[in-house]
């Protein structure tokens, strides 16, 4: 009997250790996937931000060319067969003056309306060649006669092209191109950002579009994959990555065949690790032409791996010690029962068949849900589904589970008596020998108190932030009322003197009445705005960003005037979003108040805040920028953290709660430094 009992206990220990091992594996897989995805998202963001910056530079220069009739008239004259040599010389002289203002790597190129090259600033001796067969962007420009941009590989040049049409007397006469070489684009990122960036181009595409001599001159096979080329000017130093690539190059080759984004790490030396991250590089037409990559010194993934191994070894040691202790103790059965009781009290365990029908529920599940085991077994898990959990949430969960993948997440459930509780759930499928799913096991932990604590903390932080905002508004309202009260007092004082001098007549009284009522109207407007700002309702509504900004500026008008700060609010088309308007006013107020404080010790003559808004790329945006010098670089990454402040006596809650409110409204709040000051940008999908 004892042998049977010992055998049972051994099996139980092995099963529990297997579950713990599975948890460690799931945790490691999830953390590494999340970190790799973060590296991919970061590279996408850095590439996208740099591309947007280049687009802005090109647009500024394009407006100057399009607003100068000389360029369009020159192309018109050239198409009429006039002296092209003279026209090219004049155009080149004018274009060179523009190019001197541009950073290194930028080029200008003018085309006629028949797709022939008129002049290149980098090689002015080359002109007149037909671009229709080698430059799809030029052909597309003739068809669309509208701006277009993107990455394109040409006969002598690969890079980013920004094309714009030219019209003379409302007739299309040709186009011009502002282009940036790929190596110059990469240089910009290498200069501005912390990592090292590079670019891979598919050999097949390059051999098809680029001359053989040009390939030998400018390119060489990449050290990552023989099917890709790298420009010699942005070629990665192979001696730095050779050792790392030796172990992962086959994996990189397989991943590149998927033509998707990926990130992986490899050891370089005993104490250095390289993280390789690649994202697809697409041409202007959306076709993939290569990869954009970054190489960074980053040992995070290795630390995660060794940390998981350490946890696994520690768990194995603990289980081994427990097992030996059980073998040596006579009361092993009691100890095992106590351990099982602890698991039942702290961990909710259930099993379901392939359809999601409960086949087993432990004591903790029974106690927390309020349902008996008899009521739970045979029922689907929807018996405890909370109405606030959407069908889409469970649809995504089941899609992942039925694909044979484990799922992890938070779920809100409903008790039998109508109460609610929140669990952290780990659900994984069980397979038979044929690899088919036979059932699912769910292990959950009650985190209701933790979630309530987080919710209460958020409410407290929101309350603190609102109190600080109310203080700002009280000061602003006081300033707003001070001026009309002083005017009314002065008018009343003058009334007695004017009456004594005989100047009071009907016209005087009407003017006096009109002036007094005007001041009272101003005080009433201020009071209405202040009252709306303090509205406690939390219902979503559609509201105008422009109207929201105007209401905050009304409250802050005197404060801004007192500090000699000019606010330029771009009166653009109405931008309507859905959310809680008076909550969003806190965001605008916090940003404007911070800008005002940044100017407080500033002696510059022109203090300026610019507010603009609009819609682009399927999202709306609100941008607030100033010229107060910007936020210290060491503070910038932590600006949205709670209690982070650079002001004496500040709470550090304004920016934190602004960030949380933006998230709550379904948007994103970001900050960066421009050359003049701080730029806060709120974006939200349309």
| Percent of residues in β-strands | 15-25%
- How much is the radius of gyration in Å? 34 Å
Strand arrangement, major sheet: 7-8-6-11-10-9
**Helical residue percent band:** 40-55%
Work out the helix count. 18
Instruction: Determine the mean pLDDT.
Output: 80
Structural class: alpha+beta
Largest sheet: 6 strands, antiparallel
Number of strands: 23
Low-confidence spans: pLDDT under 50, at least 5 residues? none
Shape: flat
Give the terminus-to-terminus CA distance: 70 Å
What descriptors fit this protein?
single chain, 686 residues, 24% strand, alpha+beta
Model description:
The longest helix is centred in the first third of the chain and has 66 residues, at 2-67. It contains 18 helices and 23 strands. It is flat. The strands form 5 sheets. The protein has a 6-stranded antiparallel β-sheet with strand order 7-8-6-11-10-9, with helices on both faces. A 5-stranded antiparallel β-sheet has the order 2-1-5-4-3, with helices on both faces. A hairpin with a 4-residue loop joins β12 (348-353) and β13 (358-361). The protein starts with a helix and ends with a strand. By secondary structure, it is α+β, with helices and mostly antiparallel strands.
Q: Brief description of this entry?
A:
With 686 residues, the protein is of the alpha+beta class. A hairpin with a 2-residue loop joins strand 20 (607-616) and strand 21.
């Amino acid at each position: 009997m004892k042998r049977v009992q010992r055998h049972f206990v051994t099996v139980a220990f092995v099963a529990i250790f297997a579950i713990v091992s599975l948890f460690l594996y799931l945790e490691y897989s999830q953390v590494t996937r999340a970190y790799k995805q973060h590296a991919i998202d970061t590279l996408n963001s850095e590439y996208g931000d740099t591309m947007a910056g280049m687009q802005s530079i090109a647009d500024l220069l394009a407006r100057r060319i399009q607003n100068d009739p000389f360029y369009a008239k020159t192309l018109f004259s050239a198409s009429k067969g006039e002296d092209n040599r003279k026209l090219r010389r004049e155009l080149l002289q004018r274009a060179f003056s523009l190019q001197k203002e541009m950073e290194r790597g930028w080029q200008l190129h003018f085309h006629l309306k028949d797709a022939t090259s008129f002049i290149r600033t980098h090689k002015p001796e080359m002109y007149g060649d037909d671009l229709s067969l080698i430059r799809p962007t030029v052909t597309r420009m003739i068809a669309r006669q509208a701006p277009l941009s993107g990455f394109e590989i040409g006969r002598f040049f690969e890079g980013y092209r920004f094309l714009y049409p030219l019209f003379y007397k409302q007739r299309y006469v040709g186009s011009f191109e502002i282009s940036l070489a790929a190596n110059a684009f990469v240089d910009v990122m290498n200069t501005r950002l912390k990592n090292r960036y590079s670019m891979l181009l598919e050999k097949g595409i390059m051999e098809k579009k680029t001359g053989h001599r040009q390939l030998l001159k400018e390119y060489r096979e990449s050290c990552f994959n023989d099917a890709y080329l790298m420009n010699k000017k942005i070629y990665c130093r192979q001696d730095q990555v050779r050792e790392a690539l030796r172990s992962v190059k086959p994996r990189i080759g397989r991943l590149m065949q998927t033509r998707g984004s990926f990130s992986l790490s490899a050891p370089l030396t005993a104490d250095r690790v390289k993280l390789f991250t690649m994202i697809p590089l697409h041409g202007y037409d959306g076709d993939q032409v290569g990869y954009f990559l970054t190489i960074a010194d980053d040992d995070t993934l290795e630390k995660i791996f060794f940390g998981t191994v350490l946890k696994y070894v520690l768990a194995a040691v603990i289980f081994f010690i427990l097992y030996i202790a059980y073998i040596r103790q006579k009361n092993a059965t009691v100890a095992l029962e106590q351990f099982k009781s602890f698991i039942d009290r702290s961990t909710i365990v259930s099993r379901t068949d392939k359809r999601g029908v409960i086949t087993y529920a432990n004591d903790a599940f029974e106690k927390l849900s309020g349902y008996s085991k008899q009521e739970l077994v045979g029922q689907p898990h929807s018996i405890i589904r909370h109405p606030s959990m959407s069908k889409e949430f469970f649809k995504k969960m089941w899609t992942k589970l039925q694909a044979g993948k484990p799922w992890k997440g938070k779920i809100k459930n409903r008790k039998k008596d109508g109460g609610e509780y929140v669990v952290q759930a780990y659900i994984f499928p069980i397979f038979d020998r044929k690899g088919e799913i036979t059932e699912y096991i769910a292990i959950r932990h009650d985190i209701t108190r933790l979630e309530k604590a987080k919710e209460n903390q958020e409410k407290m932080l929101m309350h603190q932030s609102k109190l600080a905002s109310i203080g700002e508004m009280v000061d602003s309202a006081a300033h707003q009322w001070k001026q009309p009260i002083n005017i009314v007092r002065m008018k009343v004082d003058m009334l007695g003197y004017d009456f004594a001098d005989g100047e009071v007549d009907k016209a005087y009284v009407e003017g006096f009445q009109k002036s007094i009522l005007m001041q009272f109207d101003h005080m009433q407007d201020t009071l209405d705005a202040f009252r709306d700002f303090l509205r406690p309702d939390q219902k979503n509504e559609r509201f105008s960003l422009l109207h929201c900004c105007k209401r905050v500026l009304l409250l802050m008008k005197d404060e801004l005037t007192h500090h000699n700060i000019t606010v330029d609010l771009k009166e653009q088309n109405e931008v309507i979003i859905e959310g809680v308007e008076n909550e969003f006013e806190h965001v605008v107020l916090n940003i404007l108040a911070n800008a005002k404080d940044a100017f407080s010790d500033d002696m510059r003559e022109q203090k300026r805040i610019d507010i603009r808004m609009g819609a682009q790329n399927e999202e709306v945006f609100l941008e607030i920028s100033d010229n107060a010098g910007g936020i210290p670089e060491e503070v910038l990454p932590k600006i949205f953290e709670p209690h982070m402040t650079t002001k004496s006596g500040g709470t550090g809650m304004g920016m934190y709660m602004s960030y949380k409110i933006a998230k709550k409204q379904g948007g994103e709040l970001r900050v960066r430094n421009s050359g003049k000051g701080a730029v806060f940008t709120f974006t939200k999908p349309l």
